Amino acid sequence: MIESLHALGSKGLAGRIAIFAAPTDLATEALGRLVGQYGNATLDDARVVVALGGDGLMLETQHRLLGRNLPVYGMNCGSVGFLMNDFGDTSLPDRLALAQATTLHPLRMRAHVGMGDPVEALAINEVSLLRETRQAAKIRILVDGKKRLDELICDGVLVATPAGSTAYNLSAHGPIVPLGANLLPLTPISAFRPRRWRGALLPAEARVVFEVLEHDKRPVAAVADYTEVRDVRQVEVWEDRTVALTMLFDPDHGLSERIIAEQFTV
């Protein structure tokens, strides 16, 4: 898909750009300016999608486009914008034609709740388990069928993608993972026991299973980006390489570079 953008060039992208915007004054004003200059193609006609907002809108847009194989170029009209490029309303087709692609594979969550059917969802940032009440959660962790931690007493625990390693994972003191490392951070959230356990780095092909202990007394919710499942008993998490998401970045503003730079931010 990115090769076709380069082949089309800036002139060939005329009428092929779909634009989404967050429901904020800044993003709405930017939408009006861009649509006035470049139009707003339907998804069926588009070759690329421009997302105006913050990182939340980028995630929302990627979920909305699942199965369409359209690259997304974000421009920051929000608060964080780690996954976004700088906003500018000039030379947009040129920027798109020169953009570099980053391919991401999301995590797939399969959450089991009692006797009902499991709930599946995709996560571009992370899958997190979170306690629902004042009592700490008790969670057993298995990796590739082998028990690795018999009982984690905590507020929660998460598995992040490399792209998501700078989000909630970093706030929970998890490691930042470069995109090409083929690693997934597994990070506890406010661990009480074992107190000194700081998490683990797992190979990208690992399959993680969380078993919720004392689930009636200590209920736990599982969250995959926008999907929340409450009162889970068991949650499976793995990288779904059958799904590929493409984000576009300016040549001097790539995601890999930002992940490296974030590790030197003081």
Task: Write a brief structural summary.
By secondary structure, the protein is α+β, with helices and mostly antiparallel strands.
CATH topology of the largest domain: Tumour Suppressor Smad4
H/E element string?
HEHEHEHEEEEEEEHEEEEEEEH
Largest sheet: 6 strands, antiparallel
Q: Structural class, from secondary structure content?
A: alpha+beta
Number of E strands: 17
Radius of gyration: 20 Å
Round the mean pLDDT to the nearest integer and report it: 91
Q: Which consecutive residue ranges, at least 5 long each, have pLDDT under 50?
A: none
Helix content: 10-25%
What characteristic shape results from the CA principal axes?
elongated
Assembly type of the shown chains? single chain
So what's the CATH class of the largest domain?
A: Mainly Beta
With helices defined by DSSP (H or I, 4 residues minimum), what is the helix count? Answer: 6
List the strand order in the largest sheet: 6-5-16-13-8-9
Task: Supply the CATH architecture of the largest domain.
Answer: Sandwich
Q: How far do the termini sit from each other?
A: 37 Å
